[in-house]
Design a protein that fits this description.
2 domains; alpha/beta; Rossmann fold; homodimer
Chain lengths: 327, 327
């Protein structure tokens, strides 16, 4: 027992020494990096008038466009398309029914053009009737092998290195890091711990309803063809309250869908930190903001500027974008 | 920074030395205590074939009747009754409308006799329209002062000492402890950390819908007059999956409402531990099981016996019942 107990002890000391060096090497020494460090020191220094106890150091992160890329369409849609293609032989009616017909033809832009209703139909088609264990396996297999059509990378290779450093830096300073994403909770959880160091119980997302039943005496949770919750826009503070039950002191996003999460975070008492990633790097990633379908950054950009929230320019503030890339 | 980092280190060593002694002094040396210790050692010994990594050491606890008492009616109902009485002057129509009329007259048995529908109406009446911050304050004030009509104790003085020891023992062994209760999530969270050492983000319960809005430019979450989720019976595995996203390896309950949580826990691979508290002590607490309205323990008692799950007899297995009591 005692031997085991010493392991976290050593880890803590290792973390302390990492912190002494540069925990954010992929961040240039520009405003955002300085603002992050100033905030963290402000809330963690025991003699700081703005000191925040560890239990209250809650930080929430959007996923698509904040922790990994989201162009030309949300990565979860590639998963859904692959599922639809795999299931198509069992659904001959899909050949003449949108959005399935477009997916089967490979016309992915048309498939997503149907908006929220089409998204919901596709999510239902690929998740309902499956047990949660079966769905988890499908995601785990897909994320290990599927590749982005433009970069040829694994999707987990399109995670932002500076954000991985930020997550680790916050955790080393006693923060509990959560994902708060419009994406599917069941799509993120199977790989969030391995990729981001965020365990499933700290992932909040959109969801379908599930039902408990005994199948041949074996308990299962089965996906129902019914939306449970949309964790986007005004849904983000609701999801945060439902899952965490306390207000974050720091929040990280990249689009108008994150605006209410920022407002909710910012309105608490004591020190607050809100940061948006602005996609300004057409060469290393994509450049888009006010007019993008995915990750539109318009109202939130105005409000960030008006309120003095931190806005990261990927082009200027990050010296590495994707994990595994070199400076 | 380094000074701070050493604190968890010292804590870890303290915990290790506590474990070396008797971590469960309020438990008699009977079967349940032996079964708990055997399970914990089995999953935590590094050389054990049934070793479970820390991240997967998830333990879920029912609240009413498992962590604190639940007789003669659920304690949350006393809170609701007190709220209704306080709000009654603003609702003259309640004098002639059940279940409110019974509450105002002080006839609490009649007030709860209306079943789920009456419960829902009362919950709506006392929570909807309030912000989450306002509701939290109301609960915090009530729990600090209200007293149980039969024992005269604070409700937090009717928490079971042996279960507090069990929670601490599991946490000292790397478990993450969660509450999974049919009670209101917003009713438990304001005091769960102080009383049980369980932070709000590890509390799962029944809930009303909430809505995000800006009131005079200030973001608030407001309770809506609509049920969101009932975290009881078959709802417990659904709540566990939704909030935790992985299956517990140990679960603790006391009634038929916990049966599906136990089935779900027990059906995972590897070592599993399911424990029911059986209320057998009419002298120190209450004695009830198959015919009780609150905490009925009938089907689950049969299944526990059939499956060899652990059943604690409060009378025989606990030498102290309530926190603060002496042997």
């Amino acid at each position: 027992m005692k031997t085991l107990a010493v392991i976290p002890c050593i880890l803590v000391l290792l973390i302390a020494s990492v912190r002494a060096g540069d925990s954010l090497p992929s961040w240039n020494d520009t405003g955002p990096k300085k603002a992050i460090i100033a905030f963290v020191e402000q809330v963690t220094r025991p003699d700081s008038p703005a000191f925040v106890p560890v239990a209250k150091r809650i930080a929430t992160f959007d996923n698509d466009g904040t922790l990994w890329a989201e162009q030309p369409i949300y990565f979860q849609n590639y998963f859904i398309f692959d599922r639809i293609k795999a299931l198509a032989p069992q659904h001959p009616e899909w050949i003449s029914r949108e959005p399935f017909a477009s997916v089967i033809k490979g016309d992915l832009k048309s498939a997503v053009a149907g908006g929220d209703q089409a998204q919901l139909e596709m999510a239902i088609a690929t998740q309902s009737g499956m047990t949660t264990d079966e769905f988890e396996k499908a995601v785990t297999n897909w994320i290990a092998t599927a590749r982005h059509p433009q970069t040829g990378r694994l999707y987990t290779g399109m995670v932002y290195q500076p954000m991985l450093e930020l997550l680790a830096y916050l955790r080393a300073n006693g923060f509990k890091t959560f994902i708060v994403s419009g994406g599917g909770i069941d799509f993120m959880r199977p790989w969030s711990e391995k990729v981001y160091g965020i365990p499933p119980e700290q992932v909040i997302g959109s969801s379908m309803k599930t039902k408990f039943e005994l199948r041949n005496g074996k308990p299962v949770l089965v996906g129902l063809p019914e939306l449970n919750f949309i964790d986007d826009n005004a849904g983000k503070p609701v999801g945060i309250q439902s899952h965490i039950g306390r207000r974050p002191i720091a929040a990280f996003g990249n689009s108008d869908g994150d605006l209410q999460m920022m407002q909710w975070t910012d309105a608490g008492s004591g020190p607050r930190f809100c940061l948006f990633v602005h996609h300004t790097d057409a060469k290393r990633e994509w450049a888009y903001d006010r007019k993008s379908v995915n990750g539109r950054f318009d109202k939130a950009l105005d409000e960030a500027r008006a309120k003095g929230w931190t806005v990261v320019s990927m082009k200027d503030d990050w010296n590495v974008v994707f994990v595994g890339d070199k400076k």
